[in-house]
Design brief:
This protein is mainly alpha-helical. It is built from five helices and two strands. A two-stranded antiparallel ribbon has the order 1-2. Keywords: Coiled coil.
């Protein structure tokens, strides 16, 4: 819906050009329109703030480094980034729709302002025409009131003129009749008097005729003025009808603009609701992304620790390999020692049997001689003999058997040395 910059209005029989832009500037000073414009500016500022906030978040998101997915949390992070891009696309679409709605709303607001200005202008013109009509009606009634006394005066003058004409006729008839009784001087004086009176009557008739002519001229002028006023009134009535039709059309346009504006307001509300939902989704995704970033940093730290542990374990494994080599060498030496110890063990077992037989014999002898020997004081004990020490040694040897060479573990640390068997250090 477009309008021309100039509008032509018929006023007092002439077409006058009106500048619509000046009228729009004058209409901007209306307080109601100022409030509407302030509300629209606040709404647009709020939308702009929300848009700038989300765009800053998007720029921060785009500015972050892209991390290659290494585990499940990286996959979740990539899914969240895809979700964020999807939400960003939806937000951009909503932003475009909101911009188009704002442009449409601005255009409709301008159309509404122009229609409102035209309506106010037409209403003002209707008021002016109505005032002119009232003034012309008042003038018409005043002229009618002025015409009535002039008509009465004209009637009176016509009556006087008729009366004077009748008197003049009577005088003429009287002059025609002969008067025999009167003298010539008397008749001449009487004739002179009648002549003067006749001249006075003629003068008065001329005066009355002139007054009648002036009254007739004024009546004709008044009738012409009345006809022109009636024509102007009819023209003003036609202009009022035309302006009323234009005003009705503008009112319909205003109604349609208001309906469209209300629809755009509803669309703006829905866009705001969707924007709030998208902002909440963006906040959730941002929180999840931050948590995934923290988890990724923590896992990277753990990975670095594991790499360091791997390096230390490799160093330890190298040391363990060297230690295994030394252990194999020691194991070979222990095998050689085991063979020598085995030979000695066989000899000791043979001697053990002889020692056991001897110990049994000594026990029997001690049992037989126990009654003959005096008892010792309480709290004292006999010291073990040499053969009892030997017997205890072999009992301890049974508790700690010799470990073969192939049972030596390669996982022993470097600083741990194989312990010698108890009682064997004196024999090796």
């Amino acid at each position: 819906m477009t309008y021309s910059k100039t509008c032509y209005v018929k006023c007092n029989g002439d077409l006058k050009a009106l500048d619509v832009e000046k009228l729009c500037k004058q209409i901007e000073d209306i307080p109601e329109l100022k409030e509407i414009l302030i509300e629209e500016e606040t709404v647009s500022q709020c939308l702009q703030k929300n848009i700038t906030g989300v765009m800053e978040i998007a720029q921060k998101r785009e500015g972050r480094a892209v991390v290659q997915p290494e585990n499940k949390q990286d996959d979740d992070m990539m899914e969240n980034s895809e979700r964020f891009t999807e939400l960003q696309g939806k937000y951009d679409a909503l932003l475009k729709t909101s911009e188009t709605h704002e442009v449409k709303n601005h255009c409709l607001q301008m159309d509404f302002n122009t229609c409102r200005a035209k309506c106010k202008l037409l209403n003002r013109k209707i008021d002016i025409i109505q005032e002119d009509k009232d003034n012309l009606d008042q003038k018409y009634h005043d002229m009618i009131r002025e015409k009535r006394p002039l008509q009465g005066q004209n009637d009176g003058l016509q009556e006087n003129m008729l009366r004077l004409q009748a008197e003049n006729n009577e005088l003429k008839e009287h002059l025609r009749t002969p008067i025999s009784n009167t003298s010539h001087d008397a008749l001449e004086g009487y004739n002179n008097m009648h002549q003067k009176y006749h001249d006075m009557v003629r003068e008065s008739i001329k005066i009355h005729k002139n007054q009648q002519e002036t009254h007739l001229a004024s009546i004709i002028v008044l009738e012409e003025i009345i006809t022109t006023c009636q024509k102007e009134i009819t023209g003003q009535q036609e202009n009022i009808k035309v302006l009323q039709t234009q005003n009705n059309g503008l009112k319909e346009d205003i109604k349609t603009v208001r309906v469209q504006n209300s629809g755009l307001q509803e669309d703006i509300k829905t866009v705001r609701v969707q924007n709030n939902g998208l902002q909440e989704d963006i906040k959730k995704v941002q929180g999840q992304n931050d948590g995934l970033q923290e988890n990724m940093l923590r896992l990277r730290a753990k990975n670095n620790e594991l790499k360091e542990n791997k390096v230390t374990l490799l160093e330890q494994s190298n040391r363990y390999r060297e230690y295994i080599k030394t252990v194999h060498i020691k194991n070979n030496n222990l095998k050689e020692n085991q063979q020598t110890v085995q030979g000695k063990n066989n000899g000791l077992q043979a001697r053990e049997q002889t020692v056991e037989t001897q110990s049994n014999a000594l026990n029997e002898m001690s049992r037989t001689n126990a009654n003959e020997r005096p008892t010792e004081a309480s709290g004292t004990q006999k010291k073990p003999t040499f053969w009892k020490k030997v017997k205890g040694f072999f009992e301890r040897k049974d508790q700690f058997p010799i470990v073969p060479a192939h049972h030596v573990s390669s996982d022993q640390p470097e600083n741990i040395e194989p312990e010698p068997e108890p009682g064997c250090s004196s024999w090796i």
